[in-house]
Write a structure and sequence with these properties.
Blueprint lengths: L9 H11 L2 H4 L9 H21 L7
Helix pairs in contact: 1-3
Length: 63
């Protein structure tokens, strides 16, 4: 099974990690140090940000 790489830019991942409070665990580039909960939080934050961006551009109906 092939992995989907680069769905999210590294810059965005580090920015979200910093906002969520676990940047200190990933600043050396090792994402294996985060918990499953932190990974889920990162994905949820990325989805929220994408939805907000789409809503602002008028391509997604506002809830």
């Amino acid at each position: 099974m092939s992995r989907r790489n680069n769905l999210m830019s590294d810059r965005l991942k580090y920015e979200l990690a910093q906002e969520l409070g676990f940047y200190h665990k990933v600043k050396d580039g090792d994402w294996g140090n985060i918990t499953t909960r932190e990974a889920g939080s990162l994905v949820r934050a990325a989805i929220k940000r994408a939805e907000r961006s789409l809503a602002e551009n008028g391509t997604l109906p506002k809830k």
